[in-house]
Structures are given as structure tokens and as C-alpha cells.
Amino acid sequence: MAETRKLAAILAADVAGYSKLAGADEERTLARLRTLWSDLIAPTIAVHHGRVVKRTGDGSIIEFRSVVDAVRCAIEVQNGMVERNAGLPPERRIEFRVGIHLGDVVEESDGDLMGDGVNIAARLEGIAKPGAICLSEQAYWQVKSRLDLAVNDLGAIQLKNIAEPVRVYALEVGKPQAKPTKSAVPKQRSIFVLLGAGIVALIAIAGGSWYFLGANRPATVTSNAPTEAAHLSIVVLPFTNLSGDPNQDYFADGITENLTTDLSRIRNSFVIARNTAFTFKGKNIPIKEISKELGVRYVLEGSVQRDQSHVRVNAQLIDGETGAHLWADRFEESITDLFKLQDQVVARLANTLGYELVKAEAQRGTHSTNPDAIDLTMRGWAALWQLPTKESITSARDYFERAIKIDPQNAQAMVGLAYARLRINYYGWSTGAENKPAAQLELLAKAIEINPGYAFAYYVKSAALWLTKEYPEAVAAAETEVALDPNSAYGYAAVGRVETLLGRCEQSITHIKQAFALSPRDPLSGVWYMYLGFAEFCRDRLDAAIEQFKRAVYSGYPTYIAYAILAGAEAAKGNDAEAKRALAEARRLFPQLTIKWLLTETTPTPSIVIDGLAQGWAAGRMSDQPSQATSSSSNAFASFRSSVSNPSVNQP
């Protein structure tokens, strides 16, 4: 593609004193940066629609579609850094300097950005104090009336190698806006708000200097919130843990999760998915702003305090449009009556909103009353909902196995165990027979027999059937989940991913977009973009598919599978340089990657992608022999086309 000129919001960031930190303890510094990237920075960039343009040394350049997105992202990350640095001596703190500018840039064919827009952002970052953010006047005027934070007008500053002086504003992170005062410069505008910051520090990568970067940022999939909130639309914000022990966070999270599930059963309700709600955890964001962003009328928030034998829950219902408190109550029960407590909250909330909760559905779940089993099951789900790593998923598996030993009739733990094993096999962390999809179908059948009303069991069943190439059955299982839980974002995504393989291209896109509508800020939505890419293949739109695969990588799904699929699509398009970079990153993440593995062990993949990957193999970049790779991809290509033209035929 030829270079293009455009207006963009650019965020530049680096780690203050990085050389000193690395010199003192390089291994620990790099480990902390990797953790910050996976747990805080990458998810926050994705939520705010950012694109990582490049990472060089300890610095980074991020492009956003608006200054508002850039500023909000910066605030969340910088506030997160304040929390993470608490209690550390100054010499061990990782602190970011950030600059944000709105200006003209030139986008190169490889996605790199050049021009004054980038240069000014980089110079602003250079004059920022550790832990601070500097904003150009052009960027400041885009957000000054939106954020209630203290800002200092630093006046016009001559930045290095920039022709004209730039008026600079510095955010005081963590300080609210003071009463308006006159600027020290006569007749200057009063100061209102601004950003906060933080952004990615480069994680050193063996064998390469920077991650593969796409050319153009894809267009937004869908409007993430309705223009007018539905009458019974609600988000359950993560309940606060008041136990005084951070290790008990999982317990409060489990209460939040179960309330979200049960509220979804209220007739005609629109309930924001759990993963989107959890992006607000620990954030001090006004209720009205959350309500507007998510398109909901009501917000439920509360706290959980637990001791050895009792749990106390405080809950309050807030009108998102006015901020008025509509209802509040306190519940206290024995830990063995945890789910009775949950049902009380749901029932009272339903009455307050004027809707009747069907009692049979509220009580039909067969819940374990063994405190140890409940405890272990909640710990397992808390680990499972993290970004997928070998450590987090195997930890979840272990929790579920222990829960089942205590309570062999614990259906939730069985479903969690099946899901954990599926993911262990999917990502190639273990190929034992106990982790194969077929084995999980047996475990899921037992769980469903115990509790046929547990909706998420059908999502996991659909995933197992999808991986065993039983596509009609996989759709049926996903549709059962949606019937049981009409607000299940994962249920709609599961329907959509399989419909592509049955040739139902348009229906697939419709259902995946519904998943985005139900969980617009979902940290795991990156994989949904990959499904949209497959749907675009189904429609013979290679360019559109590539854009969705790029978005998958940038939106919190930087796995070897996502990079490998992107590499195959780029190679099929003839974009050799881009394909090689993506392929190298895929192999860095999973060195034993082969075409055979992709065909037999992971995501059912359109064969044009496999064909594209074969070109990379032919160039000697993978362990498969070129002839074997080409033969495998050719056979798969014919099978994929056959399955699309004849939906009753399963792929091999």
C-alpha cells in the first residue's frame, strides 16, 4: 500500500531511568515489564482502541483514533502504576513518562508512522517528569472539558528539533481539579482536566527487535453500546473485597460473576458481560460515565466481607442517568448458604426494577454447599478468566480437580475442568489423552446430567465439538447456551465461529457482533476478531480478513495461533515481509509450531491461510518439510471449500 497522510492522536512513552533499573537488576526489571504488559498495559490499550505502532528500547509509540481514547488509556495505566509501585523503594519503581499530541502523520506501507505528529509526542514525553504526562495544546483542547483532574499550564516550550514553540500542559496524576484559577500568563484560558498515563515499556525479545505491526487499524466492528439504554439494562460492577486480605479478591469476584449470570435470566433484560464489567475493577470512574459508555440504565455495585463462617454482602442499585441510589440492602449468611444469599440479592433487585424473576429458574441451579469445594471452584474460575498462560490455566485445572475430589457432584467445577483441559490442549501445553476434546465431552455430559440448567456448560461443549469438527452439533450446543442465558456474549460468539465453517457467512458476522454488543470491553474479545476474520474469508474478502486478524493481535489476543493465522493470510495476499514478521513472532511464542499442528490440534482454519503458511515453510522458516506442508495445505483447502459448499460435510 502507498503511504497515506492522516490526523492521529499519538501517545509516546518510556520508562524513566530505565538504564539504571536494568543495570541494577536486568532480569527482575524485564520480568516486571512483561507482567505489566500482559496484566495491565495491553488490555488497557485494547479497551481504548489503541494500536501499538512500535516499541524501541524502553519506549513505545501508540496510535489512537481519538485524543479522548489516548487520555483515558493513559490515566488507567498510570493509576495502575501508582498502585503497583506502592510500598517499593524509589530505586525499584517503574515509572512512565508520557507525551500525547494530536497532529498530522504519514503512515508507511508497513504501518509505521512518521512526521511532526509523532515527533512532537516524543519530545513531550522527553520533558515529562517520571510518573507524569505532558499534553500539547492541540490535544488538550480535545479533552479539557471531559476529565476532572488537575493540570498545570507549563506555557510555550521550545522542543528540541521542533520549529515552533508548543504550549504544554502537565497532568497532576491522582489530584482532582481545583477551583478554577487564573493562569500566570495574562488572558490565558483556565485549566480543567486531563489525562493520566502510562503505556507500554518495550519487553526485550530474543531474536527480534520489535513485534510485528500491521498496516492500517481496522474499522470499528460495531457500536459498542445502544444509543438509548433499554428499560432493563444493567451492569454489575466488581464487588469490593473488604476482608483485608487481597488473596480473597477471587471470592468477591465470584459473587459478582454469579450475580451477573442470574440477572441474565430476568425476562427481557440486557446485562453487560462479566469480562467487560471487570475492566472497571479498581477504577474510580463516575457512575454516569460508566452508564453512558455501556448504554445501560442501571448500575449495581457493592462489597463483600468474609470471615471463616459467614459472608456479608452490601449491594446498591444506582440510576445510571441521574446517579440516584434506588435501592440498597445488606445480606449476611452462613458460608454454606452462599447461593441462597445470591438468590436473595437477585430477587430483591428484580422486584425493585418491576420485573418478576422466575423463581423456578432462580432456584433450579444445583449448587454445591461444601465451603471448601465452593472456595476451590471460585479460585479456579478466577485463574481461568485471566489472559491465557500455561501457569494460569494449569493452576485453574488443579483447583477444579481438588474441588471435584471434595464434591464429586460439583457441576461447575466439572465444566471448569473441561474448559481448562481444552485450553491446555489447544495451546499445545500438553497433548495427553486426558486433555483431548473427546475426553472433555464425557466430563461435560456428566456435568450436564447433574445440572442441565448450567448455561456455560453448553459453551464449553460447543468448543469441544468445534475442535472435533462436529460443526452442526457445536452450533446446537451454543444455541442451547443462548436459550438458557440470552445475554451470554460467549454463546453468540460460539454460534458465530461455527457458522462460518457451515458456510453461513452473514449469520456468523451477525452473531459475533452481538457478542461485542453484550460485552463491548471484553478483555478476551481479541479471539472474536479472529472469528470475524474467518467469516470474511467465508465471504471471499481476504483484505478484510487480514484487518480482523491484525485487530485480534492488537486487542488482547497476541497468541502464537493469532500470529500464525495472520502470517498465513499475509502470505496468501503476497505481503511477504509482513508474513515473515508475524511468522517469526508465532514461532517465538511456540517454537514447535508446524502446519500439521495447526491442522490437527488447534483452531479449524480456512485452508487459504494454511496455503499461505506453506509458503513460509517452503522458505525454511518452520520445522515441517516444504513438500509435506504444501501437500497438507492443498488437501485441507479442498476440504474447506467442500465444507462451505456442502454444510453437511465436516472438515477433517
Please summarize what this structure is.
By secondary structure, the protein is of the alpha/beta class.
Structure, described:
Strands 1, 2, 3, 4, 5, 6, 7 and 8 form an 8-stranded mixed β-sheet that branches. The model is unreliable at 179-227, 349-366 and 620-652 (pLDDT under 50). Among the domains are: 4-176, Nucleotide cyclase, GGDEF domain (Alpha-Beta Plaits, 2-Layer Sandwich); 233-364, Rossmann fold (3-Layer(aba) Sandwich). It is built from 24 helices and 14 strands. It starts with a strand and ends in a 7-residue tail after the last helix. 50% of the residues lie in helices and 15% in strands. By secondary structure, the chain is α/β, with parallel strands linked by helices. β13 (310-319) and β14 (325-334) form a beta hairpin. The protein has helices spanning 18-47, 67-85, 116-127, 137-143, 249-263, 274-277, 287-294, 338-352, 359-364, 371-384, 390-406, 411-426, 437-450, 455-467, 471-484, 489-501, 505-518, 526-538, 542-554, 560-573, 576-589, 595-601, 607-618, 626-645; strands at 4-15, 51-56, 59-64, 96-107, 113-114, 133-136, 149-157, 166-176, 233-236, 240-241, 270-271, 298-306, 310-319, 325-334. The longest helix has 30 residues, at 18-47.
The end-to-end span amounts to 36 Å
How many DSSP H or I helices? 24
Q: Which percent bin holds the helix content?
A: 40-55%
Largest sheet: 8 strands, mixed
Estimate the global geometry from the Cα principal axes: globular
CATH class of the domain at 4-176: Alpha Beta
User: What is the fourth-level CATH superfamily of the domain at 4-176?
Assistant: Nucleotide cyclase, GGDEF domain
| Overall radius of gyration | 25 Å
CATH architecture of the domain at 4-176: 2-Layer Sandwich
Strand content: 15-25%
Q: What name does CATH use for the topology of the domain at 4-176?
A: Alpha-Beta Plaits
